[in-house]
Amino acid sequence: MKPLAGARSLEATLQGRLAERESQGRLRRLDIPRSDLVDFSSNDYLSLSRDLVVRDALLTRLNHQKSPLSSSNERIIGSGGSRLLDGNSALAEHLEQKIAAFHDSQAALLFNSAYDANVGLISCVPGADDVILYDNLIHASIHDGMRLSRATRRFPFTHDSIVSRYGDFSVKLEKHGANCTEVDGPQSLERTLKKLTASDRRLRLGESNVFICTEALYSMDGDIANLEYVSNLVELLLPYGNGYIIVDEAHSIGVLGDGRGLVCQLGLPDRIWARVIGFGKAMGCAGGGVLCSSTTRLYLVNYARTLIYTTAMSFPSLASIETAYDYMMLEGAKQRRCQLKMLIQHCYAKLRSLEERSRPTAAVLRLPKDLSSSPIIPLFTNRPKSLAQYCQTSGFMVRPIVAPTVPQGQERVRICVHASNTIEQVDGLCQAIETLI
Q1: What is the mean pLDDT of the chain?
Q2: Is residue 361 classed as helix, strand or coil in its secondary structure?
Q3: What is the extent of the structural domain holding 359?
Q4: Omega of the bond leading into 384 within 30 degrees of 0 (cis)
Q5: What residues are paired with 292 via a beta bridge?
Q6: How far is it, in rounded angstroms, from Cα 274 to Cα 51?
Q7: 314 and 336 fall within a common domain
Q8: How many helices (H) and strands (E) does the chain have?
Q9: Domain membership flag for residue 382
Q10: Closest by alpha carbon to 186, among 232, 136, 237, 244?
């Protein structure tokens, strides 16, 4: 059967778009990670996905599926449908209660991924009269959720206005006060909120809501949001309690706050309206969830399309998540976090020493200004692909990150440190970087 003329035209259109992207050096392709290279790329920060203790605990759980939570017709491989039909289980409900307790939350709701959790939450909760404010470096899933949301007023604020490395924000709050017109800069969170409350009577009187979306630990820059500042600012400028903060903790759980995340580390669970968590990073498995109130959980069950219209997690997926959480409560997880922290500090010190010795221009190599507790270290450079390729040739897997994943002019090589890395491996990677620059 011959293809229709329209089909040939579409193929040509698609090929043309791909060719244009390739000419810009931005064409993406799938490849299989090389097992012969030292991993400084994946999000498996605690190296749990390769841990033999975790693996053996999961295999034991899978081989002995029967438990007080099991029933005679429990499915082993698939779940049988969406959770609103045949896909729910006592194990899923039990796991959500365990997760909520671990993260000091009233309730939790599982999603098939953190991406689905973000899209489901943002798309269904904000109403037509509400406003969404979002960090201009927020994850793509928030953008997709906003496109589906009834809230048509959506405003970005500058990432630099909320990250911890930019100073003591509490001093600004005391200095400015609620009615001061002085601002941090164009499109800062403070300025955006002040403009909104000044121009919108319903917002100012608490008759409509503002949802503020941020991440805890940013996956590309490796910096950490100053959530205390964000909370103080929201409560100061929205005194009627109509400001609701949503924090994406996909990259911070397992690493910060004894594994519980940044919100728990800062003692803020009661001041953050909702948290999105992901299990595919430091937790070493897959899936995601929302930490929230019981009322919000029930609302999501009724309105979140990414939960309602998809097949629920299977028993193996639920078992892997529970195994990871059980491990988080053991001494071994604490030791891994300590090992990771030590390696992060060592890597920063080596890179800073390299920078001071070589004195490369900012275009060739530039490090973040301050030491972070983040396992993500961006090396800003105008030649990310050649630097990443040289490191790979030297035996170390790092990846180039280019536009549109990051803004034009912010290209970098992204280093991810893992608990299973060694001092010698970190030194070898830094030596390879120094050799090229």
Answers
A1: 90
A2: coil
A3: 32-51+332-436
A4: no
A5: 107
A6: 31
A7: no
A8: 16, 12
A9: yes
A10: 136
